[in-house]
From TrEMBL:
<dbReference type="InterPro" id="IPR001130">
    <property type="entry name" value="TatD-like"/>
</dbReference>
<dbReference type="GO" id="GO:0046872">
    <property type="term" value="F:metal ion binding"/>
</dbReference>
<dbReference type="GO" id="GO:0016788">
    <property type="term" value="F:hydrolase activity, acting on ester bonds"/>
</dbReference>
<dbReference type="Pfam" id="PF01026">
    <property type="entry name" value="TatD_DNase"/>
</dbReference>
<protein>
    <recommendedName>
        <fullName>TatD DNase family protein</fullName>
    </recommendedName>
</protein>
<dbReference type="InterPro" id="IPR032466">
    <property type="entry name" value="Metal_Hydrolase"/>
</dbReference>
<dbReference type="InterPro" id="IPR012022">
    <property type="entry name" value="UCP005295"/>
</dbReference>
<keyword id="KW-0378">Hydrolase</keyword>
<keyword id="KW-0479">Metal-binding</keyword>
<comment type="similarity">
    <text>Belongs to the metallo-dependent hydrolases superfamily.</text>
</comment>
Amino acid sequence: MRIFDPHIHMTSRTTDDYEAMRDAGVRALVEPAFWLGQPRTNVGSFVDYFDSLLGWERFRAAQFGIAHHCALALNPKEANDPRCAEVLDVLPRYLAKDGVVAVGEVGYDSMTPEEDDAFARQLELALRYDLPVLVHTPHRDKQEGTKRTLDVVRESGLAPHRVLVDHLNETTVAMVADAGCWMGFSVYPDTKMDEARMVALLAEYGTERMLVNSAADWGRSDPLKTRKTGLAMLDAGFAESEVDSVLWRNPVEFYGQSGRLALEPVAAGAVDVATGSSVLRGER
Ligand SMILES: [Zn+2]
């Protein structure tokens, strides 16, 4: 089973996790920029974080034969903090970099006017930099938040197939399917979504435009939920090619729209940690 985890926060995981993921079949991943738990007080904290996603974390993943890519953005939660507003000014120069395959996570947390503004501005940046977008949907008021998300995407002029709407469940999947966007599901150990419910959703909606991720971070989460979902699909009678669509070909197709996927893992030691550039591929 080859696996591409389209949404996982490796910054908060250990080398044991990288090893277990490699053994489970994970060969590639996308790490979206997110809220780190402790509020950041200035733009410099984001610059260092973005650099670490492009450099250090990519280097760590390469040591385990995993191709690391990232999505960068000002996350919805911190969009409410005026001390972080400047992030939107430094973001453009990061979106031009090779390891960045999407704008994300953007979207809503509490659906405030500040979140509206940051969301719309970052959708504009996605258009300008020709990147797909990873959209987080709120855990509270999920239906209303998802509906509003789809309205904002429609108004932005972005084509729906350039947008992945994530953290969906049984109450929100249909409207995203109808809108033509990609559908993301975060499978968790004991909340929000599990393997059995995921398999039932795949049986109902099919495997097209469907993405499964572990969204693993510093909370209780499991970086092997992708593989566990694949095994549950096989148990339920799905073909291996359908598992491959969900766990590999779909994320490759979605993030491939950036033109920047590098699926041969960068050899250990080949990444310049200071700049995040790959010596092998001659990137800047
Ligand atoms: Zn996330």
